[in-house]
Design a protein that fits this description.
The complex is a heterodimer of chains A (317) and B (268).
Chain A (H helix, E strand, L loop, with lengths): L2 H11 L9 H36 L11 H15 L2 H7 L3 H20 E2 L2 E2 L1 H26 L6 H8 L9 H19 L1 H7 L3 H6 L4 H23 L5 H13 L3 H25 L8 H19 L1 H7 L1
Antiparallel strand pairs in A: 1-2
Helix pairs in contact in A: 2-8, 2-11, 2-12, 2-13, 3-5, 3-6, 3-11, 5-6, 5-11, 8-11, 12-13, 13-14
Chain B lengths: L2 E10 L2 E11 L4 E6 L5 H9 L6 E6 L2 E2 L5 H7 E4 L11 H6 L15 H11 L15 H16 L7 E5 L7 H18 L2 E5 L3 H7 L2 E6 L2 E6 L1 H4 L2 H8 L3 E5 L6 E5 L9
Parallel strand pairs in B: 3-8, 3-9, 6-7, 7-8
Antiparallel strand pairs in B: 1-2, 1-4, 4-5, 9-10, 11-12
Classes of the chains: A mainly alpha (317), B alpha/beta (268).
């Protein structure tokens, strides 16, 4: 399809241009293709910002909502919610699923945080391992819940493919529902910039610079949960975006958090839109799950960073 | 008294680290806190900086309790230089020193004096050549100087009394760097009228550069005065046990504490 045709369809939709394209084509673009691209962009922006916040908060370049189990927590919360919602309530439930996901992420990170901290200090290696274990446990619980709550497996297939990670949204509904928590998450994220810079020097230095550490920590965690919750609700469990994109952007715009956060939103969006494009087009007519693409790019990246940063992780570990 | 602790006590869990500390520091004074490992020196420093709230007693700054200041306002006149920091991301030296300006920034991030002040602090401590190098790649001594530059940038534009609190600024530095840092600290801070309170392990440096020493032992302040008055056989034995001698050189008034080995060194 020519780019001009797509532009024409979109403009016509907003009443800017006269509709000339084939109505079927217009419906495909407006109801299927465009929401998918927009959803991919939002998910990418949310995951990249959540990655920056997580790394800054835990002073750990390897931390990321997926790796720390927050995505798994959001997924479990959403699944549990759907499993116990009656079909009657299901349609209304859709509009606040993101908040449910954010809540699940929040509870998970609280547990992981408590597991990894000793006398107020968070061990960088322990938190990665605690997150990994929580991810595995929550994944298993999610699966178990699906079998328990749904003996006839009517919803299983759909939830299964959603948890597998991908932007298979239909229409604009899910996107509209995800925008409020996502917008709030972005605002919270931008407010953390100065505090996260100070925190790079350690808690003692940040405190002496006048940063209210406790409040900062709570705000940042809420921000991460909102962003990860919205992303998981839209696209399931997609890992490593919050690792790869912040790392690349740090090389380009530097480590200071205000420019870093601002740069990560469009970069994360572009990364996931492209990954989704690859997922759709690499093996036609089959569609590779988006999470497979991001894991194939991000997994090796994580391993490389783990090796390159081993000295650092060991040093304060 | 400008910075004043009254009846300060603190504990971590059920371990008491400080009890009943009463100290006051006047504007422009330079003081070294000495004592054995675990005597509570760093905790006292944190309490004086306002980043640790003491379990009992209170600290006042110009008559107002430290806890009553908004943290950012407090941070404009009281700076704490930690022992050493590890930075997980590649901030340059300039970016690190610039962090000192955080409490001075307006709500919208404006700080017209900022760039000039940061530049001056960097030049002051001879960090010019490292300006765009990653902070994490510096040597221990260079990192210490960068943290000192951050503290200078933090408080140097604040009108009125200011205090610089330092935790072991010379730890792990060679003799040359120890001397350079002390000279920088005492002369620069003296020129600007900044009060200095520093924790020091090295009694020789403390006696040499500071007219007033405070001695902490097991959480209590057991001596407070000039090096001549404080560095006595009795005090040294209380802190470190036996096995030390105090040498008083005829040429100067400064006492020197020396280790006495229990057995003479074997000769070849």
């Amino acid at each position: 399809m020519a780019p001009l045709t797509i532009l024409e369809i979109v403009l016509a939709r907003f009443g800017v241009a006269v509709a000339m394209a084939d109505p079927t084509l217009a419906a495909i673009v407006w109801e299927i293709r465009l929401p998918r691209v927009v959803a991919a962009g939002l998910v990418g922006a949310a995951l990249a910002l959540a990655g920056v916040l997580t790394q800054g908060l835990f002073r750990n370049p390897l931390a990321e909502p997926y790796i720390l189990g927050m995505s798994g927590g959001a997924g479990f919360a959403v699944t549990a919610f759907l499993a116990f919602a009656t079909p009657l309530h299901l349609n209304q439930a859709m509009s606040y699923l993101s908040w449910v996901g954010a809540f699940g992420g929040l509870i998970t990170i609280a547990i992981v945080y408590a597991l990894a901290s000793r006398r107020g200090r968070v061990d960088p290696l322990t938190i990665l391992l605690a997150g990994l274990a929580m991810s595995a446990i929550l994944g298993a619980l999610t699966t178990a819940l699906l079998f328990m709550g749904d003996p006839h497996l009517t919803r299983l297939a759909r939830v299964w493919s959603w948890m597998g990670g991908g932007v298979q949204v239909l229409g604009w509904g899910p996107i509209a529902a995800a925008v409020p928590p996502l917008g709030l998450g972005i605002v919270v994220a931008l407010r953390q910039a100065a505090g996260l810079d100070a925190l790079a020097l350690g808690e003692e230095s940040a405190a002496q610079l006048g940063i209210a550490i406790q409040r900062q920590r709570v705000e940042a965690i809420v921000g991460i949960a909102l962003l990860a919750g919205a992303a998981v609700t839209l696209a399931g469990l997609i890992g490593f975006v919050g690792l790869v994109v912040p790392h690349i952007m740090r090389l380009i715009v530097g480590p200071r958090h205000l420019p870093l956060l601002i740069a990560n939103a469009p970069a994360g969006a572009a990364f996931v839109v492209l990954a989704d494009l690859a997922a759709r087009t690499l093996l036609p007519p089959a569609e590779i799950p988006l999470s497979v693409i991001t894991a194939l790019v991000g997994g090796p990246w994580f391993l490389y960073l783990l090796r390159a940063r081993r000295g650092f992780v060991g040093a304060i570990g | 008294m400008r910075l004043c602790a009254r009846g300060v006590g603190h504990c971590f869990g059920d371990r008491v680290v400080l009890r009943d500390i009463d100290v006051g520091v006047e504007v422009g004074e330079t003081v070294a806190i000495v004592g054995a490992n675990g005597a509570g020196k760093s905790t006292l420093l944190g309490i004086l900086a306002g980043i640790i709230a003491p379990r009992s007693g209170s600290v006042t700054w110009g008559g107002t309790r430290l806890g009553d200041f908004p943290p950012r306002v407090r941070a404009r006149s009281i700076a704490l230089v930690p022992q050493d920091v590890s930075v997980p991301f590649d901030y340059t030296v300039e970016e690190i020193v610039d962090l000192g300006r955080l409490p001075q920034r307006s709500a919208l991030g404006g700080d017209p004096e900022g760039p000039g002040v940061v530049r001056r602090a960097i030049d002051l401590l001879g960090l010019g050549p490292f300006l765009h190098q990653p902070f994490a790649s510096l040597s221990g001594g260079e990192r210490r100087r960068a943290l000192l530059a951050l503290a200078f940038a933090q408080i140097s534009t604040t009108p009125g009394p200011r205090v610089l609190l330092l935790d072991e600024p010379t730890a792990h530095l060679d003799l040359g760097h120890q001397r350079a840092l002390m000279e920088d600290l005492v002369t620069r801070a003296g020129a600007e009228g900044i009060t200095i309170v520093t924790v020091l392990h090295d009694l020789a440096l403390a006696a040499l550069y500071f007219p007033r020493l405070m001695v902490l032992h097991a959480g209590r302040l057991i001596a407070d005065g000039t090096p001549q008055a404080v560095l006595t056989e009795a005090t040294i034995e209380t802190i470190y046990g036996t096995g030390f001698s105090i040498e008083r050189h005829a040429s100067s008034e400064i006492p020197r504490v020396a280790i006495v080995a229990s057995a003479p060194r074997p000769r070849p």
